[in-house]
Amino acid sequence: MNKILATLGLRIVTLIVLISFSILAAEAQSGDNTAQLCPVELATDIVNGTVTVDKTEAMAGETVTITVTPAYGYAATSSDVNIDLTIDPGNSRAPHRAPALGETFHPVGDARATHDFPATYTFTMPEYPLSVLISATFTQLPVHTVYWVAGKTGHELRMSTSNGTYLGGDIPEGTLVTVTIKMTEPENFFVERVLVAEYENRDNEVETTNLGNGVYTFIMPAFEIIVNGIEKAYLHGVRFDANNHWATYYGDHCLNIPDGVQGYVVTGVTDNEVQLELLTDEDGPPFIPWKVGVLLYSETPMDEVITVESSRASWDYTSMLKGSIEDMEMPPGYVLYGDKFILSHTGTLPAHRCYLPLDSVTTSASAPRVLKIRRPGEEIVTGIEEVITTGATDVASVKYVSITGAVSDRPFSGVNVMVITRANGTTENHKMVKP
């Protein structure tokens, strides 16, 4: 009996061993069925764009999402993204080919990626790889260059992908447009901004990139657009001297008149007073015409140089004021001094300032030494004509003192004491009444 039991036990042990060897052999033949995480890596030589993944390792059957973002001026599609698999040739699920060392395929996704519209692509992790390496190639967009000479062709361009004819043809959607602005006077002007927007809806703005030196780029959208440039100009020599309201300007560019300042042209001289016409524009803000001498009036006295936006090159004004964009030897005429024009026979006129030629004053054979300035609509101040037009000494300044003792550069309503200080230092006091 014991012999029978011993024989049976030996057979059971032998059977267990055989079963174990069979299982090991099967696993060795078919591979390890245990789910394994496979690393997902990015190539280190990707240029002209970036690639990211939502996971750095994945199991078979998992979805991996790839985000592709080209650099500015480049694009990519799903076919530009390569997924290289490193495969275990001993795995029974590996593709049956010789040699079974690797496989390359592309993710799923049809959208084209640009720098402002990154695209996402996906793929499903196969069962057989050991690792995944993702790389991408970015293609440079075609470039369409527009040369825009500011001040010559205007400040607005119109482009279209459908029915535009700018520069002889349409601009394909997705084209990288380069706008090169050639400034006529780069030392005096600079481009503050280039706005690209939908022609019918200008709030729909297209992103632009400033490359410097007047070069701006953007990617042409599917809709018709306008390109609008905004220049800024530094006005050399346009300074309202301390405590003064008036200044003159002469330039070779049209310039918008800033807030708080009014512009006038001189249309004539009557009774020792220059006649002014206000610069206005029904279609937009008033502007200083180019190559037209103007008077500028500030509502509050200032002592600064004005920086203003440039305007369009059109005007309907002429002025008796003359000037130059460079320093010049002035012929006999009147120059601005405070709030009046003073006769001068010699001297240098600074650049961008104005003078009133002597031959434009025809009220008498002997030209008066002082010409008054009164804005249109201002009340006439009595008692000034006979005071400031007499005497052989130039007037240096005029102050007004009210009955309460207040002092101002302009007369108060009612009774004033006008204190005139001449160039030799002498003063004169005159009673006057402003209605």
Using brief descriptors, characterize the structure shown.
single chain; 435 residues; mainly beta; 4 domains; nine-stranded mixed beta sheet; five-stranded mixed beta sheet; rod-shaped
What is the overall number of helices? 2
- The first-to-last residue Cα distance is 148 Å
The dominant shape is rod-shaped
The main pleated sheet reads as: 9 strands, mixed
Structural class label: mainly beta
Q: How much strand?
A: over 45%
Q: Radius of gyration, rounded?
A: 42 Å
Q: Catalogue the unreliable spans.
A: 12-32, 162-168, 381-392
Q: What report would you give on this structure?
A:
The chain is mainly beta. The protein has helices at residues 2-30, 385-388; strands spanning 38-42, 49-53, 57-58, 63-70, 74-76, 81-87, 102-105, 113-114, 119-124, 129-136, 139-140, 143-149, 156-159, 176-182, 189-198, 205-206, 209-212, 215-219, 225-239, 244-249, 255-256, 261-270, 273-278, 287-288, 294-302, 305-309, 322-323, 328-329, 333-337, 340-344, 348-349, 354-357, 370-373, 395-401, 407-408, 414-422, 427-434. The chain has four domains: 38-140; 143-233, no CATH class; 240-378, no CATH class; 391-435, no CATH class. It is built from two helices and 37 strands. The strands form nine sheets. Strands 20-25-22-23-33-30-29-32-27 form a nine-stranded mixed beta sheet, with no helix packed on it. A five-stranded mixed beta sheet has the order 3-1-10-6-7, with no helix packed on it. Strands 13, 15, 16, 19 and 26 form a five-stranded antiparallel beta sheet that branches. The N and C termini lie far apart (148 Å). The relative contact order is 0.08. Mean pLDDT is 75; it is low at 12-32, 162-168 and 381-392.
